């Protein structure tokens, strides 16, 4: 069990946020063992893979754009595979989204992602996951994004439902206004999300700050198929 430093209530082991007041909880011993290592991250500092690479996946250790070394697979969807990687020059973790070849090799799709990536890269806001780079290579198209140590809002909601405990009103309002701020910053740059949902809102573990992510690149393919490939301001 974990005691909340703010309200002093007891929370279930493994919780990141207090189920009573919504405050960030200290990391448990299970999360940070006495030897100083982090679960899933060996002493070498390279994150261990969560799963073995399947067909079409990048091999672990593969370097994108000469600087982003693939460490593990974070997730997979219809548009591509999401990896945890390390910037080999700064040793900073990043997220690399590799677009599947059937989309990446289509020039109209590449042109659109590049144009809208430039708009998204201009967004510098604490409530938006930063796009670091769009990498175009002969055999692939990659989006390199800021890594957020935390969980998606849908997972947070699921945990409260499982524990049959309502989310604290203060936490709900805090996250709501932070998401509004992030979306507003995107709108100021002409970027419309179009796929805003709890799964696309990340909650940073250390301070419960909301970060809007994944500005709907799946919608780009829908527009291309529907003949709307020239729609601007959407990613």
Q: What do these coordinates show?
A:
- The chain has 235 residues and is α+β, with helices and mostly antiparallel strands.
- Among the domains are: 1-38, no CATH class; 63-148, 2-Layer Sandwich (Phosphorylase Kinase, domain 1), CATH 3.30.200.20.
- Helices cover 25% and strands 23% of the residues.
- The chain is built from five helices and eleven strands, in the order E-E-E-E-E-E-H-H-E-E-E-H-H-E-E-H.
- The chain has a six-stranded antiparallel sheet.
- A hairpin with a 5-residue loop joins strand 10 and strand 11.
- It is globular, with a radius of gyration of 19 Å.
- The termini are far apart.
- Mean pLDDT is 78; it is low at 29-53 and 229-235.
Keywords:
globular; alpha+beta; 25% helix; disordered C terminus; 5 helices; 6-stranded antiparallel β-sheet; Phosphorylase Kinase, domain 1; 235 residues
**Major beta sheet, strand line-up:** 3-4-5-6-8-7
Strand-residue proportion: 15-25%
Tell me the name of the CATH class of the domain at 63-148: Alpha Beta
CATH superfamily caption of the domain at 63-148: Phosphorylase Kinase, domain 1
Question: Topology of this structure?
Answer:
Layout: E1 2-3, E2 10-11, E3 63-64, E4 68-76, E5 80-87, E6 93-99, H1 101-104, H2 107-121, E7 131-137, E8 140-146, E9 150-152, H3 153-162, H4 169-188, E10 201-204, E11 210-212, H5 217-225
Antiparallel strand pairs: 1-2, 3-4, 4-5, 5-6, 6-8, 7-8, 9-10, 10-11
Helix pairs in contact: 2-5
